[in-house]
Every structure is written in C-alpha cells, then in structure tokens.
Model the fold of this input.
Amino acid sequence: MSSITVRPTVVPGRYGSYGGRYVPESLIPACEAVAEAFSEAWADPGFRGTLGALLSAYAGRPTPLTPALRLSAELGVTVLLKREDLTHTGSHKINNVLGQALLARRMGRTRLIAETGAGMHGVATATAGALLGLPVKVFMGERDMERQAHNVFRMRLLGAEVVPVTTGSRTLKDATSEAMRHWVTDADEAYYCVGSVIGPHPYPTMVREFQRVIGDEARRQCAAELPAAIPDYVVACVGGGSNAAGTFAGFVETSAKLVGVEAEGGSGAANGEIGVLHGFQSLFLQDEHGQIKEAHSIAAGLDYPGVGPEHAYLRDLGRARYVTVSDGEAIAAAVRLARAEGVLPAIESAHAVAWVVRAAGTPELPGGSTVLVTLSGRGDKDITTLIAEADLA
Amino acid sequence: MKLLMPYITGGVVPGWTAYLSAFEHAGADLIEVGLPFSDPTVDGPTIQESSDAALARGTTPASVLQDLADVRTGIPLVASTYANIALRPGFGDALTAAGVTGLIVPDLPLDELAGLDVPGVQVSLLASPATPDVRLAEIGRRSQGFVYAISVMGTTGERDRLAPSAVTLAARLKQVTDLPVLLGFGISTPEQAGEAAAVADGVIVGAAVMRRILDGASPAEVGAFVASLRAALSLVAPVR
Done:
C-alpha cells in the first residue's frame, strides 16, 4: 500500500483553516514567548536529552505494547494496547507536562498554572511542579472535583493549589476559561501548562510534539511485532485529543487508518461546527446562535465541547475519522478489558476499546484486522464511577 | 472634550434598552453594548454574571441587535462580543441593520482580523500594557474609530485604583495614533475616570455600571452614576 503524506500547513499554528491565536491582546506576547522558547528548545539536543532522560528514568518510558490475546480471540481482530496507563501518574499526560515544565523552567517562569477535567493533567502538572520545584495552581470545575475527588486529593498531596471553578457547567470548559482569565493577570511570571492539543498557537503543535513519543514508540514496536510492520487501524480516544494526536503523529504518514473515538455527548470532531473558543479555531458543539454547548460524558476527560485544530483538519482531509461511543458502551468496555486482560483502563480510554468492540467484524473494522489502541490512562481514578455504573452481575 | 463610553450587556434584564437612553441623557458619547457569549474568557466575575443572566433570559446576539434596531439612540452604538459570534456569517449585516457603527472583539487580535467581515462597521482594536512598541504602532494604524487601551493586565472588573500601567500605555499610544485613546478595564469611580482622562481621550466603564444594574438599580439611578462620571471628565482639560 502506498504511503500517505500529510504535510503540516505552511502558516505556523494553522491546520488548514483551524488553529490560530484568538486571545486577548494582553496574552499575545506570552504566546509569542512560548512559541519562540519551544522552537528553540525543540531544536536543542540538550533540551531533548534532558526530557528524554526524565521520560525514561522518571516517567517509565518506553511503555510496552501489550498484545490483548484473549480480547483478540473474542473479537476476531488482533488488538495491541499501547500502555500509557503504565506511566508515572497513570496517564499520557505526564509526557506533555514534563516537556512544558522543563520549558517553563528554561523560560525562567516561577510557577505553573493548569486546567484539568478528569484531574490527570492536574496530577501530572502537580507532579512536575514538585519535581522541578515550581509552585502549581490548578483550575478545576466544581463538578469534576466531586467526580474526581481522589485526584483532587492527589494534587493537594503533591503541594498544588486546586482552585474550584463554579461558573457555567463547572467542568473542563469552564476550568479552561478560568485558567485563561488567570493567565492574563500573571503572564509575566506564570507558565500556562495546557493539557491537550488545544489553545492558542503554539500549544496544539507543541503538545502534539510532546505526545508524539507515544506514536513514535508504538511505530517502532509495531515494526518489531507485526509481520506487516504497521497496524491496519490506529485507535485512540479524543477529548481535546492529545493522546490521539500523539499516537496519530507516529502513523499519519503510513497507510494505517486513524480513528478518533469521542464521547457521544462531547463529540466536537464528529458533530461540531467551526467556531472559536479558548484561543483557537476548530470544531465546537454550539447552538444556532453561536453559544458553546455544554458537553456531557461519563468520562470527565472527554467532557469538552471542542477538539484540537489538527483533528479538525485531519477530519476534513479524510485522513482520520471520528466516531462516537456512548457512556454505557465505554463502561462495558472497561469491564470487558479488565476481565479479558487484567487491565482496567480509564473510562476515557475505554471509549477507544468500546469502538473496537462494536466495530470488530463489521465493514468498519473487518475480521482479521490488526488494531493498535492507545490506553491513555488507567482506571483507578474511576472506581467510584464504576461502582455506580458497572453492572457486575 | 473627553469621551465617555459606558457599557451594558444586552438583554441583561427585561426592558434593558431603557438604560441606553439614561446613558445618553447622562452625557455618554458612545455606548458599548455587549452581545452575551457563553464563555467570556476576557471578562471578570461581574460581566460574566451579566452574560449568564442575559443568556438565562433567552437573550441571543440577534435579539440584542433587534432590540437596538427598535430603539435607535442619538449617539453611536459600539457592539462588543467574542470571536465565535463575530466571525459567524452575516454578522456584519446584522450589525448594520441594527444601526451599530462600531465593534470590539477582545479575543480577535490583529493577527486574526482578516477573518472578520463587517463592512461599514469601525473595528476598534485593543492594546495592552504588554504590547511591544512595533505592534502598538500597527494597532494604532489598523484600529478604527478609537483605540481601546486596556489599563491593566487582567480581566474586566472594578478595581480600587487606576493602575500605573494605564498612564504609561495611554502615553505610548498617543505617540503612535491620532485616533482617540479610550482607557478601559477597571475604571470604577468618577475619580478614576478623571485620572484616566488626564492621560487618555476618554474612558470605558463596564463592570461598575453592570454591578449596579445586577444589584437592581433603575435606569435613573445608573444614569446618575454615568452623570457623575461625565462631571468628573468635564473637569479634565483636553490632552491636545
């Protein structure tokens, strides 16, 4: 099969018509400073070396590629799991945060601010802050704080300040708005550590580059494991879309079919319309008057009404497709993976598994296919939700 | 004469347009009318609350513009809203039909202006204390009607005193543009308005007005506050 070339767009920070930098004038210098610093750092072997060493000695990389043998037999497709759940702090978020925290230190910033939905990005940022001696302030929707009480405690244990956000839907969208409002007041000293491939340029590109370690590793591992060297399908869950962007980055120029799996109630890529929020143009769930709709998902990490600009672009190109999975399918998939493989995924990641379960053996995912699924995080944080939702009879 | 532009969130309370004539009679030179957006990332708590209140009443950008078309004031109306609303197809025509002649989009900086299609409407750009000189000059060149000088690094909202950065920014802007420079963000009292107008061509007062409206003040009461701002400005000599 011929390889497919997807070139980055010519204008920095633009993916087709998506991306950009829609921020108040007060934040333009801060965005430019981050863009310049990232560009220099990423070209600096010293920075890459320090990050690489931290990723292996601290975060536990490379993560394994686990063949899901029993699930594969049940479904009639070969499923390989990319195990981001095995990283330190329990999700892929640490890859990006270590990169951004090192960048913040290189820029001479004295503190980190972050937003979080499920809490994993908050925990990762609190962890990196503790490691590098940078104070951390995390904005989190009040509703998510209730759903993810354990992660709130973890952040506080790590020394971070967790700021409850009480506006709007009290979830990730509002936490992101509040973090941006706070950043304006503290742009000289604070570094805004964005948790996904969203936000103003350079964040979507920078976060993808920090997460591409997932896809690059998986590509090498697939080359070693698979007779065909690359899988037929590459599947990852999509909220803002950082684990998917990192995974896809390793395969976008291969013939693998890329599938992003969104929550039914948070399906920016599958059902959104073009719009602008949180500093970037992309696809957002919105009403006919241009008001952003609240997203709903049992997975706090997928409870975001939009999707990163690169995903919107890959969708338009037809290079990736975006599908949705219901809350119930995700819960069932989490339980199924736990029982078949002894791996309890985060409910976010269970969305990716759920699509594989649903599509296997259909023309969407024909029997005999090889499927790489990124398990972006582990399900320990979701035990309370699972107790309430999972039917274990 | 120093310019005074009070702000109101469109649709915040029933009969909200009565405040417009109160502002006009109190001596406002222009009125900024906010078209409420669900996610006002540049605004502080007061204007966020007013946007939420307006949206909860079923207010839409179209309904605010329809209300404006129905009242017609004798002074210029400047709409302000977020990029997600302003970039929608047909927005420029809707502004014109409502008699709006100016526009402020706080999350649409210089670099993204090309996407905005509002012929016949003057788009005022914002300048911040962090804006470097070269960019400030470009903002001065490309702004229309006036330049909106953000007095302080932060969001909209009342503050105890005028930030020193306001004075510096106004002076820097006066060197690079002949347009009026209006200071906004945090100007809350007649004293602060007078202080701001000593260095700028006028002031924009938002949260201090909206807090009164949210607290239930009548058009006459808020009009009296605007008149007190007008009186403070009238004591200040013109910059040029």
User: Anything to note?
Assistant: Chain B touches chain A at residues 37-44, 48, 52, 55, 60-62, 82-85, 87-88, 106-112, 125-132, 135, 139, 150, 153-155 (CB under 8 Å).
